[in-house]
């Protein structure tokens, strides 16, 4: 037994691009340059590539892991070839905006691609995720010189990118960063310090690596306001663009981790390494936040991708595993027909659809914000997408093990890898608590819940649409969502009442984030019900969407009420 | 960094034995032969042994794992010495009933011991758990000959025991067992077949292993009613009790698992191995169920133990990890003071207390049933204890990783081991679905909810006691528990309404089990509140118990309402 072939979720993306949100999302985002059908083709192409090239390396990556040999990190067998194929197929360029020489695909389409890279091989996908994040950050903040020297090489895929924030004494608390950058006469900076947890911090799949490094400068203010951002390449670049000497950056260690073994997590020592200032002095957080926002949304796609891969494996096993003959019955049914196995599979798939739909919705919101739309709503969904999908991915990947029974606990089965891989997602790119504090502090309390109100008003519109349809699933979905919205209003009022006692608010910020994520998931399903019931006749796929929505409403949405009780309590002294 | 020293939870057991249930539970169970104070000493002694001998081998066991070498399983460094010390200290004999030559300790005390063995080293504890289960099974069913030859050696700890049920085509479905036992002229049986997932199926820490094997006999009825139980030793026993030749049982493989690496999970091939019938022909399930019930309760103690070990490590880390200096503040606070870290720690510890208390309560119920008490209630709690504690252990051990941030994902930190180890607990000894179907089918639907009513009536008594105390935590606890009881009555009525549509009942049996477990946990906390508020003055430990109860009521108990919504929906078509 081993992980079955990867099946890209193309049908869901067709539905999400073209009709779930009541319009052709892709056409709107691209001003008509692309349609949902075009986007489906792109996603299907990515899916084929992922299934044939990336997915077969998932177990290899887990088994071999990344290794440090004589100061150089070696990636698992096949990763270098896969990376070259990935670049040659244009999948890095596909991520880049037009301004950086990329394809400028709408965010919704990139959400689909992000899920597919992660679903087929999450450890590999981290290279894409960080390079893509750095492309967006440099595109937003870098000087023309830096753009020409570094950004072009990232967009072409010749070089890869990393994000260097964390230090042994500065994790969540960026203000504690001690890495020091000292100006040199030639305009470059000498960077000295140690960075830890650097994903894809060293490897052998591309000829150079561009590190984006947060560091303090002499005389800078204390805390996060004194941080500046630097580009520091693994190999120095000559004035003519050719590669020169190795920079003074040493890979001290590669971590031995619970999961994503194929992704090298490095400890990097900067020993007066050469770096170049990106953006304004002391303005390092601004650029880093562009990268971090991109990475946080990317985590949503990773959570969805890993969850779906785990689900696919569980569904395949449940369909193939036939129960032995029981008491006279000559042959049993596949375990997928057992009521509890069916429950587990529907629990997983209904969560995954909600996660996937929210990823598309949030990515599209960010596009709309860039085009002058509601930036507050777009920013509001970043922590929800990151926090909620990654937390739910823990349960989904755990359920996938459970469906396998004892076989799920055997490593060779392959399903445990998804569970181990998924565990990091609630931690890196800001823990769930960080997401929740961002949400509650900056995006709810600060504007008195105005953004929540805007969201709930939108959900009310969907409710009105649902009420206009005569179908039992529409009626049940509306009843449940209505109740959940009312509870969310109450919970938000309870949270706002804690404005003057921040400990109370932050003691329930994670439950509040999970409440909003769970509600948003219910809304995504409600939108799907509305879209499906516009069809004149319902086919098998439509029926499955209705069942999924009904299941979500019965099994997952009620959690909103429990979480609201928790939010109301504030901190328990 | 590594897992900190194990701290046995002696204070909780003192409280549970002596006052939480409003009486000296140990004195009642032992007819006054022992008191809660005596039991505390026993548990404290076990704790010392576990902390000094077993806990230091936990990480070693994970790292080295069990290995198959030339047909013989080798356990990790130190396991053999630890096992001898364990036996010499009398901890196997402590588990055995008086009728089998053991100490005959009350179940409540054995619950405490079980948690401690598992908390200090779950992989090692499985040897204890299976040997103990077999002792109880043979004590209940074996002939005098078998008792003398095998049971005495198990009770002395010279030999260890295993449980052989599962086959490649017979997991949950015992009726599909194909292993065949054919009678020989000398009264023994020739056993032929393959058994998988045999915990501690082979090892090098004791001179012999007693396998308890479910097999079919020629001409036996189909299905589970045709199964008989056999004892088959690894090494044959001569008439004088000395060890003879190896039996025809081969260890084909040792599994490579997600967790509990130190526990050898074996594939055993029986090639006309010699076995002896235990109990009645075709009555194999009866004896196996004695062992399985013991093992299922043991799983509750394992879930509690692993959870507590993970909690201890998280609490230690959070107390020691100091945030770097932030914006002018010269030094930060330990992360334990951050609102969300405090939430995670209280979430864990309040669950663990509930799990621990329910373990003691359920074990005592089984004692009382043996002494002529309410057997239905005792049997009712076995699946709840097993199912609910093991499911919650997944979240608790996940939270322990989360408290560590990025360090939690690094294997050397040691906390990921608890997460990996815990994952098996919802699967073996009957998955959560099996527990839930047992609960719903045999213990709720079959008697029209009478046992649930009996339980709720008891909770109502606790509510009356809570209402009689003037304290805000008592008032809040009563309000919440009252609401949860009402919801449980409604959910039970909804479930009973599915009596004629079993698929509906079994499609929500896991949510219903989790509802009852969560409610029972709230009841345990309510009993603790009543007991604590009997004290004239409240010390720090008392205050912590009230906070824990209050937290559980605010963060965990509300889940009852969400689960009730799910139960009401039945199967989603």
TrEMBL record, chains A, B:
Residues 455-570 form the Acetyl-CoA dehydrogenase-like C-terminal domain. Keywords: FAD, Flavoprotein, Oxidoreductase. Residues 288-439 form the Acyl-CoA dehydrogenase/oxidase C-terminal domain. Residues 163-272 form the Acyl-CoA oxidase/dehydrogenase middle domain. GO terms for molecular function: oxidoreductase activity, acting on the CH-CH group of donors. Its EC number is 1.3.99.41. Pfam families: Acyl-CoA_dh_1, Acyl-CoA_dh_C, Acyl-CoA_dh_M. It catalyses: 3-(methylsulfanyl)propanoyl-CoA + oxidized [electron-transfer flavoprotein] + H(+) = 3-(methylsulfanyl)acryloyl-CoA + reduced [electron-transfer flavoprotein]. Signal peptide: none annotated. InterPro entries: Acyl-CoA_dh-like_C_dom, Acyl-CoA_Oxase/DH_mid-dom, AcylCo_DH-like_C, AcylCo_DH/oxidase_C, AcylCoA_DH/oxidase_NM_dom_sf, Diverse_Acyl-CoA_DH. Its cofactor is FAD. Belongs to the acyl-CoA dehydrogenase family. Involved in the assimilation of dimethylsulphoniopropionate (DMSP), an important compound in the fixation of carbon in marine phytoplankton, by mediating the conversion of 3-(methylthio)propanoyl-CoA (MMPA-CoA) to 3-(methylthio)acryloyl-CoA (MTA-CoA). This is 3-methylmercaptopropionyl-CoA dehydrogenase. It comes from Microbacterium invictum. The lineage of its organism: Bacteria, Bacillati, Actinomycetota, Actinomycetes, Micrococcales.
